[in-house]
Design goal:
With 675 residues, the protein is of the alpha/beta class. The protein is 35% helix and 17% strand. It is built from 21 helices and 24 strands. The radius of gyration is 31 Å and the shape is globular.
Length: 675
């Protein structure tokens, strides 16, 4: 039986495996620092194979900064960490597929590499903007001068100023640490996206250009989709220019895949619902009197304010039994279309012909007329049109520039939380819009800078709108609000004070994560309460499982037994930490096996031991300290895909060998491991 690693996946070895698939001859073996044989790459041979396509020296276009190499190394290095379930903080644990993880997002992303590889459909993040003003996140990444001078070779080996570096002043020192912070996380995030997936990143002008450079490198310049400009209302506190916008950078995982599979992004047009509501009101009054209904609808459009979104669709003002439509051009684009007589249905005279000819041939035109899809004028003196119904044109490609007053989100969140406990929260309706057009088919949404939990709220909103069960993974560092308070400005202190008061009322620790979870709970409850009569609401998921990042479940002896004497080893009855539960071990195994954290599981008692079954047999685990042959046979009879036991559950090596033989006989396709 193999022994589980109980640590994050070795991304370096996985990358070497990918190289091996392409160039097997360049992969060799070497002995690692732990004494074990590992695969390695002969780069000299690889360079020979690639010949002239290898770039050497400084003559290459690239984006770099002090600390980039360390950021790359940080992204791929293994960690001995795990995530532990916290059932007491969850909402609907047994049924929900939503995940909330407390912990450093870089380490969490490493742990998710196996379980969620190529399974995230949409990533939205709102990272720190590097303004030095954010009171929740560390938001000022200015590197001290001494560190920068040392890292950037500001001085030569003789202690003299290296004048070739003299142009690097405060500006690169300000940006380098921020670039390193975000770069390593983007490298890991890309691995999680599906082929049709995309990432959206909110940012402002402080790091916009650097972020674009990094994303071009990580996701590929060809996969750049758009840079959205969000205008959020005027500010009057600037001496020169009132900057009232921020950006959302968007990259696809594989833009070519989207094109090849005819995947288009479409969003529901604003103002549509108001038009339908007015039409329904008028229909009740005028019923089949379509002429009067049509005139009233046109008057309604006319009375709307100029900035009302419904006014953009005022050309949809004609009405018939099918609904609201627009009489669209029926002539051949560019000219040269067929020309033939079409008789007016009332006067029976030939109608006026379009100068460019008809868009349809005569047979198709007759079919359209018989289906009442052609709009005729009062008489034959006007050119007919084709009826284009509003219901068929409810969506459009999203605009890259849009306006949305950010104060609305603040007011809605204040109402939800009963006070202003978040400063400058993201607008849940904007993120909902992104989910709507870029994640139309559903799937998983990831936000590893979860903050106030806006993305989770947005997922709930979109699910209720289109009756789909997308699920989310939120990751957030448990920032200490008391510590943040010490260094906050006066405005931030007011918000922090209110947040702390709310947490005290709820008897919760003063952590940002506690605020985020409370916001998600309240958002779900509010949506359920407002949509009690909505069909299918009972099938939608408004819960979430809570996990917390922690050190490995295993004692150090598990990883470094060679450093201990036999006498010392005998002191360790178990290699598992005493404070760890069966559930802790179970979810650690799920991560290593590459199984989602959202899978359902049951626990049952059998002959005095506890057997945990995940997703009807994807994994069965038994962590009891003593397991007899009958229990092993019972588990094998169920023929699970995977099984895991405690290594110490078996008396000796022959007993473990016997376990292997039982599974060979009863469940030969089952993979068995121990911890």
């Amino acid at each position: 039986m193999d022994k589980m690693r109980m640590e994050s996946v070795d991304l370096t070895q996985k990358n070497i495996e990918k190289i091996y698939e392409l160039f097997p001859s360049v992969v060799t073996e070497k002995r690692g620092i732990d004494g074990k044989i590992k695969k390695a790459v002969n780069f000299e041979l690889l360079k020979q194979i690639l010949a002239d396509e290898v770039v050497e020296g400084d003559e290459a276009y690239e984006f770099t900064w002090v600390g980039k190499k360390e950021a790359i190394a940080e992204a791929v290095c293994q960690i001995k960490k795990t995530i532990r379930p916290c059932k007491e903080e969850n909402k609907e644990w047994d049924t929900t597929e939503n995940i909330y993880i407390e912990g450093d997002n870089l380490q969490v992303l490493k742990l998710l590499q196996e379980s969620y590889l190529k399974s995230i459909n949409l990533i939205y993040i709102d990272p720190p903007y590097n303004t030095g003003k954010d009171f929740i996140y560390p938001d000022n990444f200015l590197m001290n001068k001494e560190t920068y001078d040392e890292s950037s070779n500001y001085f030569n080996e003789n202690g003299e100023i290296n004048f070739s570096r003299l142009n690097n002043n405060l500006r690169p020192r300000f940006h380098s640490d921020w670039c390193s912070m975000i770069y390593s996380r983007l490298l890991l995030a890309r691995n999680l996206l599906t082929d049709d997936g995309a990432i959206f990143i909110s940012i402002d002008e402080n790091e916009d250009y650097n972020l674009r450079e990094m994303c071009d490198e990580v996701f590929g310049e060809d996969n750049f989709v758009a840079e959205f400009v969000w205008s959020g209302g005027r500010k009057n506190d600037s001496q020169l220019v009132s900057v009232s916008h921020e950006y959302m950078i968007c990259y696809a995982k594989n833009k070519s895949y989207l094109k090849e599979n005819n995947i288009s992004w479409r969003e529901r047009k604003e103002g549509i619902e108001e038009i339908y509501a007015e039409y329904a009101r008028l229909k009740k009054i005028y019923q089949e009197d379509y002429a009067t209904l049509q005139n009233e609808l046109k008057q309604w459009y006319k009375n709307l304010a100029d900035n009302h979104p419904a006014k953009n669709h005022s050309h949809y003002s004609s009405v018939d039994a099918r609904g609201i439509y627009f009489p669209a051009d029926i002539s051949w684009p560019g000219g040269g279309g067929p020309k033939y007589e079409v008789l007016h249905p009332i006067t029976n005279n030939p109608v006026k012909l379009p100068s460019r000819g008809w868009i349809y041939g005569s047979t198709k035109m007759n079919e359209m007329m018989n289906s009442d899809m052609i709009h005729f004028g009062k008489d034959e003196n006007s050119v007919p049109c084709i009826k284009t119904y509003l219901r068929d044109k409810e969506t459009a490609a999203p605009y890259s520039v849009f306006y949305k007053d950010g104060r609305g989100a603040t007011k809605r969140l204040r109402t939800l939380m009963s006070d202003d406990v978040f400063q400058n929260p993201k607008d849940e309706e904007i993120i909902q819009k992104i989910i709507q057009f870029a994640n139309m088919g559903g799937g998983r949404v990831l936000d590893f800078f979860s903050g106030s939990g806006t993305t989770a709220h947005s997922v709930f909103l979109q699910n209720i709108q289109d009756n789909k069960n997308r699920n989310f993974i939120m990751v957030q560092l448990p920032e200490d609000l008391d510590e943040q308070f010490k260094n906050a400005n006066e405005k931030a202190k007011k918000t922090l004070s209110k947040a702390i008061r709310l947490l005290d009322k709820l008897h919760k620790p003063h952590l940002l994560t506690e605020l985020g979870k409370e916001r998600i709970r309240r958002a779900g409850d509010k949506i359920i309460d407002e949509n009690k009569e909505t069909e299918g609401i009972g099938n939608l998921d408004f819960g979430f499982r809570v996990f917390k990042l922690d050190d490995s479940n295993m004692k150090d002896i598990y990883y470094s037994a060679g450093e201990y004497t036999q006498a010392t080893l005998e002191e360790f009855i178990s290699n598992i930490k005493e404070d760890r539960t069966d559930l802790d071990l179970l979810y650690g195994c799920l991560l290593e096996w590459g199984l989602p954290l959202s899978l359902p599981h049951i626990s049952e008692e059998y002959q005095g031991v506890t057997i945990h079954t995940v997703n009807s047999g994807d994994l069965i685990a038994c962590f009891d300290p003593e397991i007899n042959e009958d229990i092993v046979r019972e588990i094998a009879k169920r023929q699970p895909l995977r099984v895991v036991f405690r290594d110490s559950s078996f008396e000796n090596s022959p007993a473990k060998i016997n376990v292997g033989e039982i599974f060979k006989l009863l469940a030969p396709n089952t993979r068995v491991k121990v911890i």
